[in-house]
Amino acid sequence: MRFFRQDLHTLTGAYALDALDSASETARFSRHLSRCQSCAAEVRGFREVATAMAFAATTEAPAAMREQVMTAAARTRQLPPEIRTHARPRRTRGSAPWIPWLSGAVATAAIAVAVFFGFSQAHTQDQLNAARAQSHALAAEQARVEAELTQAREHDQALAQILGAPHVTLLSHSTSKGGVAVVVLDAATRKLVVATSGLPALPAGQVYQLWLIGPVKIVSAGLLPAAQAGVTTPVVATGIVKGDKLGLTVEPAGGSKQPTTTPIVALPLPV
Amino acid sequence: MNPNDSDASRFRPATADRRGERDLDDLLVHVARGDQGAFETLYDRMVGPVYGVIRKVLRDPSQSEEVAQEVLLEVWRNAARFDPAMGGAATWVTTIAHRRAIDRIRSTTAAARREHRTADVSPPHDEVAEAVEASLDRERVRRCLEGLTEVQRESITLAYYGGNSYRQVAELLNVTLGAIKTRIRDGLIRMRDCLGVS
């Protein structure tokens, strides 16, 4: 055990340089850090070294980036401060708790949702392709969204097909419980990707379920994944028919065959 | 060295002091309240290191630009979550930048791409040589890196600038895992002491 701890302690350097080998190793070491004050102090010192190395790597960034970031910031809602309690164990997947660290699809959804929501408040919709022509600012947003979605593509082929489609429609709608559902719809293939942001957390034993609510029948489109930092990872739904609305209801754990509660959002899907 | 320096700031590189670490912390507090002017100032101060470190790791300019934008927007979104007790604002921002770059590499699962990237890593001496510029930051870091043993220097540059995990560094340098962990840690201790002394 003593050997094990010592061995773990020597990882402070690799940890501070983000050079641990896997998310699980990073998580394990983060837990160790919350218990080992001397390790945490050492990591802080090493991070200062890393900061100096980052400054030493200073490179002039493309000038156009500034306006793009400022435009995106102006449209991006800031997160409220985190309320910390000392009682809560400080464990965060893959990182020290004070560093925002979303990965892969979650990050994609978070930023995409933030950006979408910034310029498409409830009831508005934007054609991605039309956006480019509309204004420089919108084109910058579109570039951002596309960049994010490019990353998402690598994670999932079904996502890739939809997000890579030539004419997609962005839709967003606030729900009656708060939060917003964001949809990327590919009318040509009758598929969509949906992510949500800011939905209230449900008590144990309840889930959010997606539905395609058509004029003739209602079909389940699956359960929403548990939110991380308030954002759910994108879910793909297929087989949309004319007249369908995308619905979201609260259902008992495991989901239902047909909705048992009133939809908190019902978003018409133009296909 | 200022005798009033606390333990925490003893290890703070002169880099950070010279750039007004405290000002950056204050700026971030204003950013957290939605002050866009403060964000613009913060951007101007931090975009160089943010973009630079991401470029070092990713190499590809357009990918680096994408990731740098994400990082800066994340700084805006998460400014209220910044905790000065955990380190200065410059460290907070550059840590996010480096992690995002690493995240981008590790999320790219294509093995071929990774091999390509690993093969692309220039010898650490080139990293050091690249860093030679008039800037005092570069000069200090270069000097401190040169004070390390060769394996320490290679381990640290391959990990931080090369974006390799310590396991990959061990493979690249053909050294055992245990040895690499120790070399990185010992090297960072020397770097910390070297940078901490004005």
Mean pLDDT across residues of chain A:
73
Q: Report the principal-axis shape of chain B.
A: globular
Number of helix segments of chain B? 12
CATH class of the largest domain in chain B: Mainly Alpha
How many angstroms does the end-to-end distance of chain A come to? 62 Å
Query: Helix amount of chain B, in percent?
Result: over 70%
Kindly name the structural category of chain A.
alpha+beta
Put the structure in a nutshell:
With 271 residues, chain A is an alpha+beta fold. Chain A contains 9 helices and 9 strands.
Verbal overview:
The complex is a heterodimer of chains A (271) and B (198). With 271 residues, chain A is α+β, with helices and mostly antiparallel strands. Helix content of chain A is 39%, strand content 19%. A 5-stranded antiparallel sheet of chain A has the order 1-2-3-4-7. A 4-stranded antiparallel sheet of chain A has the order 6-5-8-9, with no helix packed on it. About 19% of the residues of chain A have low confidence. Chain B folds into 2 domains: 98 residues, Orthogonal Bundle (Rna Polymerase Sigma Factor, Chain: A), CATH 1.10.1740; 78 residues, Winged helix-like DNA-binding domain superfamily/Winged helix DNA-binding domain (Arc Repressor Mutant, subunit A), CATH 1.10.10.10. The termini of chain B are close together. Chains A and B meet through α2, α4, α5, α6 and α8 of A and α4, α5, α6, α9 and α10 of B.
Could you list some keywords that capture this structure?
heterodimer, A: 271 residues, alpha+beta, Arc Repressor Mutant, subunit A, 9 helices, B: 198 residues, mainly alpha, Rna Polymerase Sigma Factor, Chain: A, 2 domains, 12 helices, globular, disordered N terminus
